[in-house]
What we know:
Blueprint: H1 27-55, E1 71-76, H2 83-86, H3 89-99, E2 103-107, E3 125-130, H4 133-147
Antiparallel strand pairs: 1-3, 2-3
Amino acid sequence: MTTESKSKWDQSGPQKVQEASPAPPSENTITGAAAKRVDATEAAAQAAAVAAKIGAPSAGATFGEHPEHQFVKDTDINEVRNRYILTKASTQQQIQEESGGAVVRTKGLWYPHRSLATELDPPLYLHVTAATAEVLQRAVDKINELMNVQVF
């Protein structure tokens, strides 16, 4: 007594009809593909040129500086006890507001010994720029005041 049960998994699937292989590409399709690559290359070059124009700093200014600020002062804070306060963005914003528009940026690296500093990686300092000498002096005075604050 053998019963033969068939499920859909026991049955063979539909026979695949062998498709004709596609014809080899003609010269028109090869040149079309090459043209697309050339167009993509040209588009990438144009995009890079536009990005360079947008990202390039104006003449005489470095990245992140204000070209209209003609007065500049660098204050060394590598060995200052309150350097942690002076490097905070909120403190630098406060100096900018109280001085009347001086821009304060932290630059350089902190070194435990100044002798480890190099010309490419100078010791930690504040870079202050301002449109007028008076604004710059107010910012420098505020920095000196914060440098001398007693922190416990």
